[in-house]
């Protein structure tokens, strides 16, 4: 038998501790919540990603009366970037969410389906994605790339 261990490192930072680039992306994610169409959940999510040429692309959750037809903020941003900026690697993703009481105290992290898309996005880009997840009580930063948030991931290589 061989035993293995998967370790994830993350940080929780106060607003004034964030690096300038991270703060800029968090602010873009917060602003992106304004574009959310979320009459069913009342939960407005914004995502902002940075490409390797510095371009920032944003997205928000888009719901539908046929619930599964809606899309999360993260994939809205990822697919918009893939379409408008083909070949550009995603280097960082910031997420922010608010309900009727304002922005969440705890950061929210991408759902499983978004993590799967992030894994392939990262593989295509060839560099780890930095995750910056905003909460009013602290912002979570994960630097280990998508493997940190989706270990044992299925991908194109799995089919070889
Ligand atoms: N949602 C996102 O946009 N991103 C997440 O990371 C979690 C959930 C959306 C989907 C749905 O519109 C609403 O939040 C409630 O689940």
Overall radius of gyration:
16 Å
Biggest sheet character = 7 strands, mixed
Strand share of the residues? 15-25%
Helix and strand content put the structural class at: alpha+beta
Shape: globular
Provide a count of the helices.
4
What compounds are bound to the protein?
tetrahydrodeoxyuridine
Element-level helix/strand string: EHEEHEEHEEH
Mean pLDDT over the full residue set: 97
Strand count: 7
Overall helicity? 25-40%
Through-space gap between termini: 25 Å
Low-confidence stretches: none
In short:
The protein is α+β, with helices and mostly antiparallel strands.
Structure explained in plain terms:
The structure is a single chain. The protein has 160 residues and is α+β, with helices and mostly antiparallel strands. It is built from 4 helices and 7 strands; from the N terminus they run E-H-E-E-H-E-E-H-E-E-H. Strands 1, 2, 3, 4, 5, 6 and 7 form a 7-stranded mixed sheet that branches. Strand 2 (44-51) and strand 3 (56-60) form a beta hairpin. Tetrahydrodeoxyuridine binds next to helix 2.
